[in-house]
Design brief:
Sig_transdc_resp-reg_receiver, Response regulator receiver domain-containing protein, 5 strands, phosphoprotein, alpha/beta, CheY-like_superfamily, Rossmann fold, 20% strand, Bact_response_regulator
Length: 124
């Protein structure tokens, strides 16, 4: 079981992902904007952070920058989930410090498979 933070401002999508990952046995924390995500990251240790690209207050890119500047959090794996799926967007996300990128829309099964690969150290 992994400790995962999901930062997603769309409530329905957040609920779907949380339900799917909890069914797989993971412990999920939820944030509805970038500011809440940063506060939760400061207070908790996560195995994986799932970030929406476009969120209120701080974007997913800004959250990544905050995390990568936290000395005790640099090791945390980060996956960006985004409808901005052009190659330039993907490159921007990875250059900012994300480990993985997944374009929306995605199927819950596809997300679970990618997360399991990440948590088991496989190339997702």
């Amino acid at each position: 079981m992994a400790k995962i933070l999901l930062a997603e401002d769309e409530e329905v999508l957040r609920m779907l992902v949380v339900d799917t990952l909890e069914d797989e046995g993971h412990d999920i924390d939820e944030a509805c904007d970038g500011e809440e995500a940063i506060e939760m990251i400061k207070q908790n240790d996560y195995d994986l952070i799932l970030l929406d690209y476009m969120m209120p207050i701080y974007t997913g890119l800004e959250v990544i920058q905050h995390v990568r500047n936290m000395p005790d959090k640099k090791h945390v794996k980060i996956m960006m989930l985004s409808a901005k799926s052009q190659q330039v967007d993907k490159e921007r996300v990875l250059a900012a410090g994300a480990d993985y990128f997944m374009a929306k829309p995605y199927s819950p099964l596809e997300l679970v498979e990618r997360i399991e690969a990440i948590l088991h150290g496989e190339d997702a």
